[in-house]
Amino acid sequence: MVDAHPARRVVDILTGAWQAQALHAAATLRIPDHLHAGHTTTAALADATGCDKDAVERLMRLLTAMELFDGSGDAGYRLTEAGDLLRSDHERSMRDMAVVYGQEFHRAWGSVVDAVRTGTSGFEHAFGTPLRAHLAADPEAASRFQRAMNAGNVFFQDVAAAHDFSGARTVVDVAGGAGSLLSAVLTVHPQLHGVLFDLPHVVPVAEAALGRALGADRYEIVAGDVFETVPGGADVYLLSRVLQDWDDAHCLRMLSVLRAAMPPSGRLLIVERVIPDPDEQDAPLLPLLWDLHLLMAAGGRERTLAGYRALFSGAGLRLSTVHHLALETDLLVVETAEVAR
After folding, report:
1. What is the DSSP string of 47-77?
2. Residue 82 burial (10 A CB sphere; 0-12, 13-18, 19+)
3. One domain for residues 318 and 195
4. pTM for the whole thing?
5. What is the domain range of residue 224?
6. Could you tell me the CATH number of the domain that includes residue 14?
7. pLDDT digits (tens, 9 = 90+) for 64-95
């Protein structure tokens, strides 16, 4: 009898994209919203979405097997905890993440061969422009992208708890997007005053998000370019998943700008996924997946801990502490090189 396990492994990998696209379809059609509103049968969902009833039945059958829903088409479907996260009005909604991953990122991954051959992002091959330029030219896409990136940030609360902010008074979230990390930190540490620093086209998104989450006296928003200058003199600087988007030369320039802004007692908190050492036992897969995804999306990369240390050293900084966060993410606490050990 032929061992079927290797073939099954290949098939499971190949069909993984089908599962992701089925989830994308559910999010795009707002099926979780419709279920939450009481449209629970196949016929009701078909009417609510304007879709073919048989096709909806087949989609729901798969999504139920994937444990996003339970129930049946005749008796009615129900949201599971995972499916509930795809509601657009959920406080931790991942709907926009599912939409972007199944649309822009799916197209970018369709150019994976071209990206690997050339070292140029799959997004640029698929769309004819880099991701950053695409977002800068389309405010609606930029807003959707920011919401998508914030959707998977369950580790932001971990950052607020992992680092000792008790002696700090000011914190600057550099390239902070919609401000979800800054909001999480300020909510847990009421003595802090925050500054969100990002490019001009991101400011309206940040203003709307922070305005809903915090009092106006808790923060300010400053527009600028991290490769030129950042607000100086803060006790803590946050840099969440920014280095991953750039090559070493750009990262070194960015870190040098941050080093110039930091007082001797300041700390730089960097949130990134760290590529495990090749000989690490039970090494996590997500950093490796994300590393290749960054090539597809923006031409970026994840790095090993040694790679981060080399970048920090070149900018007059050094790694002090590493905290492991949720979703195989790490918090790298960085200080100026002059600080005594």
Report:
1. HHHT--HHHHHHHHHHHHHTTSEEEETTTEE
2. middle
3. yes
4. 0.85
5. 153-275+301-336
6. 1.10.10.10
7. 999 999 999 889 999 999 999 999 999 889 99
